[in-house]
């Protein structure tokens, strides 16, 4: 092994040994490079690097020790290779130059991801899992069939010509592109080749010879070759492929994303090629098939060379005079040669994503040029050459560096009609003279820095986009104006003169307008008006009575009343949510007969206007949202008049009943939301709503399960947090049923046969007793349209955090490394898919002695966390999106990403930082935003939500909505319900964590501290040698709702488990109390169950036990989770304590049913179908109460990771005492599951012995506990049973 010299690489190894590790530790600039063989490649289909050793031989994968100074040439010499090849993200493969340094490339890559520490860089560079993001090959992996356009090839008997003068001879026959190539078998590469163009020719069957075809070219000098095949299958395959080639009329060759350095040789024999796509390759100039040889394609009209990193413009391209379309975007050009003026036939030229600052004057010679793209370059002004290019009608310069909008320059370009200057640095506007511009019709100025904009000189302007600027005043000409989009500014005045008589669509939302502009009221053709999120106090009568208005959006204003309608109006959509309306106009429904959508949620409505004035209603209303008002039962009869209602939301009102006769008449109903009321029953006539597919009625007082399982189209049913006592499940369930949520029903009794119908499964990232009982972790992951990555993250990220916490005490370091390592662990799944991620970690605060605990929050993407402190929201996250983060948008622009008009990076995502999506590196990075906040006594709760939640709820509304809700599950569900009623059509997820932070260790209500929204059920825990400070008492609820238009697939139910690593389990109380109390860690509340939406297409499988239900118990096995179709048991430890035995009935067999043992609030029951279409993301869907144990003797590690990365969720235990200190450990450090105890083994205390038992247990506790300070000031804690059975 050579060790002399920093530039020398070490011997080839297949794995690390002690000598190698010692050598690496001596210098952080030393490391290793994993070298893959060519046959391991097909990078898109290989396994991860960590498994390569098992999936391929050691000769296919080995490591080479080297330094950051070791060049590729030295490694090649040591390995006997000609070249090394680099592959990023399982995509393209690039040949390294001899002077490039592979290890330095790896270090630079990791540094850009976010790793800072040199030692950590060295450690990560040696991790074989990195192969899914960056890997090296000793030979170029290739698929020649695709590269050469070879469709079919083989050795067959061939005869030339139509006559029989020629003999049959054995030849190599290749169907390549649009040609048939016939050559000698022996000298097929160097001998004479016969090229037969097939486009426009004929393929005929040779009847005199079996399995033979005649290939003929087109034209007067047509040639024919007869080919005899050996089998019928070969004959049919060649006939089918050749027939497709013959039928082609325009030859298009697509060789994009093939890691090419030159054009395949066979391609030059296809002279009929007119369009050649070489996008995303590594094309070279001076090679046998390089760019300098493309002039050989004499008929070439279209050429795409984008994303080839050329650096220099290939001048010989200017000799291809036939070109009409040329795409050279994203190649790193700093200038263009003057020879480009020779391409006189060029009509389309795309130069986006380069570093151009000027255009040559010779470009003006291209008089046929009709499309020129120079977006995302470095232009500081509009090039003067535009004046000569008279065929152009658009200036497309988005993402450049313009700071001044000079209208005088545009006035000199009479041929320009469309101007796209979005995402520049425009601050001011310059008008050289008073001359108007009669030519510009469309202008896009989005995402700039304009404060005032006067475009009144553009008298022909038809459409203007100026969203997301800083505009205070806007002045336009109204002669031709048709559409105006000016949302997300600071507008207080919009002046348009004359009145825009052609205006059809107007968007002035998210501004500071106090009234609707007068000219908008006079616009005679206006169809869409959006003035939501302003300061408007009244609706002009002229607007509401407009005869052209179809859609009116006035939500989030200060409206107190609406004018009375006198005449019929054509209004179809009316949004009035988040105002101060106490009533709607009496004639609204009788005059707006075309009204189909009405959203009046978040107002103060106490009644609704009648739907009809006569005997018959003519209402066409289909969607009605009235959530969060003051409506009572008196509004129900009015709803009957809307016979066409499809969606009805009446959540969070004051309904006490829903008459059966009224519901019976709503036969068209598809979605009904009655949650958050005081309903005791759902009318039996719901069975007549044959089209109903969604019923949401959580957080009511419903005691009888409605007859909804007979409905033929029912999909989603949510009856959680009610008073259900029993449920009768029919033998045959509707095939469409996907989600039945019965969590939080205290008294629900489920029979064993009922549980057998469904496969239970639970998975969530809501971890109690994290890091040996001194912390807690909560997370949320949003994959937008993919469900795979959110689940992978929720199953692995907490364990990554646990490992990082043990390596560093700096919250910024371990949180950042947690995200970066999780990004790596996504493997191949993270190459093309991405996910937003949010992680909240509560731990003892070592930096601030005045605070007992600190909250560290890290996030990428659009998931956010908000802390309620003293009733006020405190945002803890940062939204990484192009629209909301100008710094990130500028970073992405500087790296020459193409941002499409819908504000997405390369048209994929609006996020600039995510986990996964490695193929979008370096534009998308996984480095998180991190914030740490000391928790105080004023901190009440923590809300985690995804993008869909925060788009429809403000921080203040979210906090006020759940601050006084006692149950965290009900609180989370309320947030989701509000978001849906406010217009959310996407998947929405919310998590609510109730905190109880005390200054003196104990924060129980019984000790004088009362915080809003008490949760949970009282319990006490005996703790020895409890260290200070005490951990905070907390509880959480997780809810996730899916759009009714989307289908989900999963099966889950609440199951509970607590896991202990090396210590005894602390006691948990599952007894039911009438009044929940908020507790601290000295007197903790029991953890409540959690449930989780599970994707059916899990990418990992279990190697644990495949148990479902314990055959000896009438209850599910505690500590059970499933991934896909398998059920796993991690650990099962149960404790109980006797509390309030006088007020609670004795424990009987009925008390051991799942409803009382699984969940402190009742049975948690949920089903998911696994055969439905997975079209949406899957977010955490659970309820959990975090109980942070402060003593190591009672720590319970919740959420232990199984060997496949699964998480075991924590939930209430059975009322059993089971001491498991001697539970055997696996090699992984996790417990094996002990057996379930029989229900009849419960500890039952007769009433006549209760007092005696209490006294004995009290003495037992006093002998074990040290006296607490100020014990005399505290209410005596309840008794505890600590005797093992």
Radius of gyration: 36 Å
Low-confidence stretches: 1-11, 40-59, 144-148, 752-764, 1000-1032, 1042-1242, 1266-1285
Q: How helix-rich are the residues, as a percent range?
A: 10-25%
Mean pLDDT: 76
Tell me the structural class: alpha/beta
Hey, roughly how much beta strand do the residues contain?
15-25%
The helix tally amounts to 24
User: Which outline best applies?
Assistant: globular
N- and C-termini, Cα separation: 63 Å
Short characterization:
The protein has 1285 residues and is an alpha/beta fold. The protein has 24 helices and 55 strands. 51% of the residues are buried.
Task: Characterize the structure shown.
It holds the Pfam family PP2C. One of its GO terms (cellular component) is cytoplasm. Residues 1033-1059 have a biased composition (Low complexity). By secondary structure, the chain is an alpha/beta fold. It contains 24 helices and 55 strands. The chain has a 17-stranded mixed beta sheet, with no helix packed on it. A seven-stranded antiparallel beta sheet has the order 10-9-8-7-13-12-11. It has a six-stranded mixed beta sheet with strand order 1-3-2-6-4-5. Helix 4 crosses helix 5 (118-125) and helix 16 (788-807) packs across helix 17 (811-825). The chain starts with 11 loop residues before the first strand and ends in a 21-residue tail after the last helix. Mean pLDDT is 76; it is low at 1-11, 40-59, 144-148, 752-764, 1000-1032, 1042-1242 and 1266-1285.
